[in-house]
Amino acid sequence: EAGVAQSPRYKIIEKRQSVAFWCNPISGHATLYWYQQILGQGPKLLIQFQNNGVVDDSQLPKDRFSAERLKGVDSTLKIQPAKLEDSAVYLCASSFGASSGSGETQYFGPGTRLLVL
Amino acid sequence: SQKIEQNSEALNIQEGKTATLTCNYTNYSPAYLQWYRQDPGRGPVFLLLIRENEKEKRKERLKVTFDTTLKQSLFHITASQPADSATYLCALLYTGGFKTIFGAGTRLFVKA
Predict the structure, then answer these.
(1) B50 Cβ partners below 8 Å, 6+ apart?
(2) How far apart are the first and last CA of chain B?
(3) How confident is the model at residue B84 (pLDDT cuts 50, 70, 90)?
(4) Average pLDDT of the residues in A5-9
C-alpha cells in the first residue's frame, strides 16, 4: 500500500514570496490533515478536510494561508506572502474514517521542509 | 486552552533497560490518546492508541497507561534497543470538534 506522498520535499524562498505544497493521501482515506511542525515542537493542526469539505481550520492563518482539496483526493496548501516565522516542516496526513473523532490512526507523509529567508 | 506537556529534556538510557516517557495534559480529558514515533526528517508513525475508559494497552515491547484522574499517560518501552532511539509524541484526540493536539515530544537515546 502506497503511503502519503508530498512534494516538494524541500523549498527555500524569500520572505513575501508565495509557495505551494502538494499532498496525495492514501487511496480511500476520507480525511486529510495539514500540520505545521516548527523545530523542537509537535505538529500543529492547520486544517482538516473530510472528503472535500473543511472540518476544522481554526488555526489556519487565513490572511496568508489557504488550502483546498479538490474532488476529495489531492490537496494543496499555499502560503502567500510568506514570513520568516513560516519556516517549518509542513506535514500532510490522512485517515480512513470520517474524522479524528473516532480515534482513527493518522498516516503521515514525509513532510515538506520550508525555509523562508 | 488545552496544554500538553512532555519531558523537554532528552532521555538517555542503556540498552536493555525500560524507557518511560510521560505525557501530562491540563483541563479536559481526551476521548483517545495516541503515541507516535518520529525519526529525523520523517513524519510521525502511529504506535498505540488508548481510550479514555482503558487503563492500559500493550503491543509487543510497548505499554501505554492512561490515568484520567492524574491527567497523565505513561509510555514504556521494555528491553530497549538502540533502534528505539527517536522522538516520541503523544497526541490527544477530542471528539468535540474532532481536534487533534500533539505534544512537543520527548527525544529518546538508547545506548548500546
Answers:
(1) B32, B33, B34, B56, B57, B64, B65, B66, B73
(2) 41
(3) very high
(4) 97
**Contact A40/B93, CB-based, under 8 Å?**
no
**Residue in chain B lying closest to A91 (CA):** B43
Segment A32-69, tens digit of pLDDT:
999 999 999 999 999 999 988 998 899 999 999 999 99
- In chain A, residues 60-89 whose CB comes closer than 8 Å to chain B: none
Residue burial A28-63, b: 16+ Cβ < 10 Å; e: rest: ebbbbbbbbbeeeebbbbbbbbbeeeebbbeebeee
Burial tier of B5 (Cβ tally within 10 Å: 0-12, 13-18, 19+): middle
What does residue B67 show for φ and ψ, rounded to 5 degrees?
-120, 105
Count of all residues that appear for chain A in the document: 117
The partner residues of A12 in beta bridges, in order of sequence, read A115
- Secondary structure (H, E, C), B66-78: EECCCCEEEEEEC
Write out chain A residues lying below 8 Å of B89, CB-based.
Answer: 42-43
